[in-house]
Design goal:
single chain, alpha/beta, Rossmann fold, 8-stranded mixed sheet, 8 strands, globular, binds 2-acetamido-2-deoxy-beta-D-glucopyranose, lipid metabolism, endoplasmic reticulum, AB_hydrolase_fold
């Protein structure tokens, strides 16, 4: 009896030690966030173990677990018709809201899910629910793209998938088939999906014949650059769930097919040290002095080593490619971009990517709404239902829907 009591107490203490992480007081529902983080961390560790034992690639294993637990069949509701199909060879899940009598044509939203270019799916519960509610509340047609993932394909295949399926959707006869108003189409995505959405919109807007086809872009805590992993938000949130810095950098390295041996060097910005010429020209496009408010930069200590490791960019030049890092695009490209919404969270390494992109777009003359959540954490917008429901999840989602409703 006593022994089992001691064992039980030890196990509880160990579990608490595993779950507990210090979090800032201003973050939403801290205990729930710790639990969510512990589950995600545990799943990642199991996947790493399976990888280590040579039984499968860790990203495949992790995604297998996520998709098996969360998979949802295409299931229509009373208000929304849900179908799985493909657009020019790229799988998509289509959500069609019902048409009101006065509005025969609906608004269209191309949605690109997040997950580090390697995880999740348009068909898991979280994204399926988001798109159903979006189709219903906005009375719109949502195209949720099931682009191919790492390690089956790597950069730029993910970009090509979203470009190809969007091109297909924007054909007049396809828009007509889905009763979509050609002048009211938006592109949107969260996290790595926000990265792909931003890259897609930049590509379209370089082509004058396609330029007019996208009315607006809505980017939710997007990934936008890999030049500097020590922006103020990267430093402040290096260990914040759901996306600690070293995990984000591993996603980058996998996406660009680099060596994981570089992760530690990337953490200290050795890939873009001051003696690396390719980075020097681009640094002005990520100038925190002019792009971030002084409330953020007041006590900031940038990390810009004088010398680093030139081999990293030789092996992964795509770290500075605008199709992977849309924040680094030329001002001439930004000038042509459509009206933009960017949602950022305070407790997120990617906060400053979003703020800097908003500022650059604004300076280029684009109409930008920056919607910042002081108690938000990375990924919160998809966590809206039990047991992973967060008040900031509901608030971010409502705010995002409201902007789309008023602007699309
Ligand atoms: C960043 O902006 C500041 C203030 O506008 C300017 O003095 C500085 O030269 C800029 N740095 C780079 C690398 O462009
Ligand atoms: C970064 O580069 C410097 C200079 O080459 C080197 O001394 C240091 O060990 C590197 N740091 C890491 C973490 O790779």
């Amino acid at each position: 009896m006593r022994a089992s009591c001691v064992l039980f107490t030890t196990l509880v203490a160990l579990a608490a030690y595993y779950v507990y992480i210090p979090l800032p007081g201003s973050v939403t529902d801290p205990w729930k966030l710790m639990m969510l983080d512990a589950v995600f961390r545990g799943t990642q560790q199991v996947s790493n173990l399976i990888h280590f034992l040579g039984l499968g690639h860790h990203m495949l294993v992790l995604n297998f677990i996520i998709v098996s637990f969360g998979h949802k069949r295409a299931w229509s509701t009373a208000q929304v018709k849900v179908t799985d199909t493909d657009f020019d060879g790229v799988e998509v899940r289509v959500f069609e809201g019902s048409t009101g009598p006065e509005e025969p044509l609906k608004r269209g939203i191309i949605y690109i899910h997040g997950g580090g270019w390697a995880l999740a799916s348009a068909k898991i519960k979280y994204y399926d629910e988001l798109c159903i509610v979006m189709a219903e509340e906005l009375n719109a047609v949502i195209i949720s793209i099931e682009y191919r993932l790492v390690p089956k394909v790597f950069f730029p295949a993910q970009v090509e998938d979203v470009v190809r399926s969007t091109n297909y959707f924007l054909q007049p006869e396809v828009l007509k088939k889905y009763s979509v108003d050609p002048s009211r189409v938006a592109v949107s995505g969260d996290s790595a999906g926000g990265n792909l959405a931003a890259a897609l919109v930049q590509q379209f807007h370089q082509d004058p014949s396609l330029r007019s086809k996208i009315k607006l872009q809505a980017l939710v805590y997007p990934v936008l650059q890999a030049l500097d992993f020590n922006t103020p938000s990267y430093q402040q949130n290096a260990n914040t769930p759901i996306l600690p810095r070293h995990v984000m950098i591993k996603y980058w390295v996998e996406y660009l097919q680099g060596s994981q041996d570089f992760v530690e060097a990337l953490i200290v910005n050795n890939h873009t040290s001051l003696d690396v010429e390719e980075a020097t020209a681009l640094r002005a496009r990520l100038n925190w002095t002019s792009l971030l408010p002084t409330s953020i930069t007041r006590d900031y200590k940038p990390v810009q080593p004088a010398s680093g490791n030139a081999r990293i960019l030789q092996e992964m030049p795509q770290l500075l490619d605008v199709r992977s890092a849309p924040l680094l695009a030329d001002q001439k490209v930004l000038r042509h971009l459509p009206k933009t919404y960017i949602l950022t969270c305070e407790h997120d390494i990617l906060r400053d990517d979003g703020i800097m992109y908003a500022k650059r777009l604004e300076s280029a003359g684009v109409d930008v709404t920056l919607d910042h959540f002081e108690d938000g954490f990375h990924g919160c917008m998809i966590f809206t239902s039990w047991p992973t429901d967060f008040s900031v999840g509901i608030r971010t989602r409502n705010s995002y829907f409201k902007w789309l409703d008023q602007n699309l």
